[in-house]
Specification:
Elements lengths: L1 H21 L2 H12 L1 H22 L3 H6 L3 H24 L3 H11 L2 H13 L5 H20 L13 H24 L7 H15 L11 H28 L2 H7 L3 H13 L5 H20 L2
Helix pairs in contact: 1-11, 1-12, 2-3, 2-11, 2-13, 3-10, 3-11, 5-9, 5-10, 6-8, 6-9, 7-9, 8-14, 9-11, 12-14
C-alpha cells in the first residue's frame, strides 16, 4: 500500500514538473518561430526531442522490448492522436493571421484541461458533480481569457478566417482524448513509446513545410532556444506528463494544469518584456478559484 502511495505521488510530481516546463513553452516557441518560421521550429524541436529521447531509450536495458509490449491500441490510437495534435496546434499557430488571432488561438487551445476533466467521466468512469465542474470550467476559462488578452478579445476574426480557431479547438479535443486514453490503457505499465511519437510528429511537420515557406534566421540565440524548446518543454514536458498519466493522480494533475496559461503569461512577460495589466491578475484569481471547483467536482 505504501509503495502504491509513493508511486502515485511520484507520478503526480512528474506531472507538476511537466506543467512547469510547459509554462516556458509559449515564450520560447514564440521567440524561435519568429526567427526560424513556425513549421521549421516545430519540426526541428520535435526532431531534437525524438533523437534525444531515443538515445536515452536505447541506453536502458530491455526498454525497446517493454515498449513493443505496450497495448497495441495505445501505440497506434494514442500515437496517432499525439501526432495529429502536434501537427494541428502548430498549424493553428502558423495560420493565425495576426497577433490578435494568435491570442485567440491560444485561449481556445487552453480548453484542453477542462475537456480532459469532462472526458474523464465517460472514459475513466469517474463520478462527480457536473454542475460544479461546469461552474469551475466557466470560471477558469474566463480567467484564462482575461489573463491572456487583457479583456480585449472579440473573436471577430473567426468569421473571416476561422481555420486557426477550429484547428486550436481540434487540438484541445485531441489532447484531452490522449490524456484520458493514455491513463486508461497504460496505467501502471512499463515501456516508453513517446520517442517514437516525437519522431512521427517531426516527420509530419516536415511534410507541412512547403505550405508555409520561410527564410530561417539562424543565430546563437535561435540555436540555444531551439535546443531548450526541444529538450525541456517538448521532450521532458511530454515524457513527464506521460508518467503522470500512468502513475499519478490524474484529476489533481489536470486540475493543476489550469495554471499553465498563467505561468506562461508571467514567464512571457519576463522573457519577452511584455507588461502584465490588472486584467491578468484578476484572471489569475479566477483560474485559481475555477481550478479548486473543478478539483472538488471530481473526488
Amino acid at each position: 500500500m505504501k509503495d502504491v502511495f509513493t508511486r502515485s505521488w511520484a507520478g503526480t510530481a512528474a506531472g507538476i514538473l511537466a506543467i512547469l516546463f510547459w509554462g516556458t513553452n509559449i515564450a520560447f516557441s514564440r521567440s524561435v518561430m519568429e526567427q526560424l518560421g513556425t513549421f521549421t521550429a516545430g519540426a526541428l524541436s520535435m526532431l531534437i526531442a525524438g533523437v534525444a529521447s531515443m538515445v536515452y531509450l536505447a541506453s536502458q536495458r530491455g526498454a525497446f522490448r517493454k515498449t513493443i509490449q505496450l497495448p497495441k491500441r495505445y501505440l497506434f490510437i494514442c500515437g496517432g492522436i499525439f501526432v495529429a495534435e502536434m501537427m494541428v496546434i502548430v498549424a493553428a499557430i502558423g495560420f493565425a493571421s495576426d497577433h490578435q488571432q494568435l491570442i485567440e488561438v491560444t485561449i481556445i487551445n487552453y480548453l484542453w484541461p477542462s475537456l480532459t476533466l469532462a472526458f474523464a467521466m465517460p472514459i475513466l468512469g469517474r463520478r462527480g458533480s457536473m454542475p460544479l465542474l461546469a461552474l469551475g470550467v466557466i470560471l477558469a476559462f474566463g480567467g484564462i481569457v482575461l489573463a491572456l488578452s487583457g479583456g480585449t478579445v472579440s473573436f471577430r476574426s473567426f468569421w473571416t478566417h476561422p481555420a486557426p480557431h477550429l484547428l486550436a479547438l481540434a487540438a484541445a479535443i485531441l489532447w484531452a482524448l490522449y490524456s484520458n486514453l493514455s491513463h486508461l490503457w497504460t496505467n501502471e505499465t512499463e515501456g516508453w513509446a513517446t520517442p517514437f511519437f516525437f519522431l512521427a510528429a517531426a516527420a509530419g511537420l516536415f511534410v507541412l513545410l512547403p505550405f508555409a515557406p520561410t527564410s530561417p534566421q539562424w543565430s546563437i540565440r535561435s540555436v540555444v532556444e531551439l535546443f531548450y524548446l526541444g529538450l525541456a518543454p517538448t521532450m521532458l514536458g511530454y515524457i513527464l506528463w506521460d508518467v503522470a498519466l500512468r502513475r499519478g493522480r490524474i484529476i489533481l494533475v489536470v486540475t493543476l494544469s489550469y495554471f499553465i496559461p498563467i505561468l506562461s503569461t508571467l514567464i512571457s512577460s519576463l522573457y519577452l518584456s511584455i507588461p502584465i495589466g490588472e486584467a491578468a491578475w484578476l484572471g489569475c484569481i479566477m483560474v485559481v478559484a475555477g481550478a479548486l471547483l473543478c478539483h472538488r467536482s471530481l473526488p
